[in-house]
Design brief:
- By secondary structure, the chain is of the alpha+beta class.
- Among the domains are: about 30 residues, no CATH class; about 200 residues, no CATH class.
- The chain starts with a helix and ends with a strand.
Length: about 375
């Protein structure tokens, strides 16, 4: 009986302890997860009033992304207000940065993943994200801005979709180590040794426009020049020191017409023209002077050909024209080129008739090239 009473007393003491523990506030028993930032002031608790606890304050790590998103939204709003004046926004963009951003952030669009969904990627600073990298969610607004003239895709350069250096008549060089912003220099040296089984006594080879001397080492052409390009102005100059400077005027009958010596005026020039590029379609070039005609598949320069000497038929086709040409590129695969020239591979009008020509070049892919050349003389009254 005494043992029973003792057990009952122990039980009552445990029950009283449990009741006292349940009355202690939960905050005293809970783990303090944010000891570094304790609340500055604790509101007094009333035992008779229902307890409504305020949410725990955010840590510094949790507040940082929210602050960044708010700053980005403010920056996008500023850019939207400046979109009505593209020139002013473009001029101010490279020199000013928003003061609200930290120095470690280069611009508001440096991380496209944090841009709010309500803003369009096309409205971000174009100096940071190119137009081709705009995300799909901003395609509609980017298209609308393109109609306003603020951002339009550039036309593809003609025939730049593939490598056509494998074609005969085209140079094998793909880049120039001396290229500059305004001038692309070029140096050509054509030195050959021709062996003729006919063994001409005076070493003369006749009937060809490319080889002229037998059993000798000769400099056929030494060309120094290049291409000038500034904005839309274009020009090309190439010399022809060597045998070409003698044989090319020899095959031209136009210097004998009139009083001026055209063979001496143009003797050392293989190409000399100037022109202008118009930003229409995929490009329109208007050139005037002496330029390569490329009738046939072989080039005037032997370095560009598969075989050093073409057939005699190709050897007597016009290698150059002196006149005006227009190159029209409707697409990146097609070139239409009309000519108005003095005559058939001549410096002047040796028969009193100007010439007209037409070239059509179509390259649908990187392994097919279709070329057509037409030439005719104009009958003058």
């Amino acid at each position: 009986m005494r043992a029973f009473n003792q057990d009952r007393r122990i039980f009552q003491l445990l029950l009283a302890a449990l009741l006292c523990a349940s009355m202690v506030p939960n905050r005293l028993l809970a783990d303090d997860k944010d000891t570094s930032n304790p609340p500055a002031k604790t509101a007094p608790s009333e035992s008779d009033a229902p307890r409504i606890e305020a949410p725990a304050p955010l840590t510094e790590r949790e507040r940082w992304p929210l602050d960044r998103v708010e700053q980005l939204e403010k920056r996008v709003a500023e850019l939207e207000t400046k979109s009505n004046s593209p020139a002013a926004a473009t001029a101010a963009a490279p020199f000013s940065q928003p003061n609200s951003l930290s120095p470690t952030t280069s611009s508001a669009a440096a991380s496209p993943a944090v841009v709010s969904p309500s803003s369009s990627a096309a409205e971000v600073n174009p100096n940071v994200i190119p137009a081709e990298n705009v995300v799909a969610s901003g395609d509609a607004q980017a298209t609308e801005k393109g109609k306003l003239g603020t951002a339009k895709p550039l036309a593809m350069e003609p025939f730049a979709f593939a490598d056509f250096t494998w074609l005969t008549g085209n140079a094998r060089t793909k880049e120039s180590p001396m290229d500059t912003k305004f001038f692309t220099p070029e140096i050509r040296a054509d030195v050959d040794y021709i062996y003729d089984f006919n063994h001409p006594k005076d070493n003369t080879i006749s009937g060809s426009s490319e080889v002229f001397r037998a059993n000798e080492v000769q400099v056929t052409q030494l060309g120094v020049g290049g291409d000038f390009h500034y904005d839309n102005v274009r020009a090309r100059l190439m010399t022809q020191f060597g045998l070409y400077s003698q044989t090319t005027p020899r095959n031209d009958a136009s210097p004998s017409r009139g009083q001026w010596n055209l063979d001496n005026a143009y003797r050392y020039l293989s190409e000399a023209y100037g022109g202008y590029h118009f930003n229409a379609l995929h490009g329109v070039n208007v050139d005037a002077g002496i330029f390569m005609s490329y009738i046939g598949l072989f080039s005037y320069y032997q370095f560009d050909n598969w075989a050093y000497q073409p057939s005699y038929v190709s050897s007597n086709t016009p290698w150059f024209f002196n006149g005006v040409r227009i190159q029209i590129f409707p697409t990146e695969h097609l070139k239409i080129e009309p000519w108005f020239t003095n005559g058939w591979q001549s410096y002047g009008r040796f028969n009193g008739r100007p010439g007209v020509g037409f070239q059509l070049l179509w390259r649908p892919n990187g392994w097919l090239s279709v070329l057509g050349n037409q030439y005719a003389l104009v009958r003058m009254p």
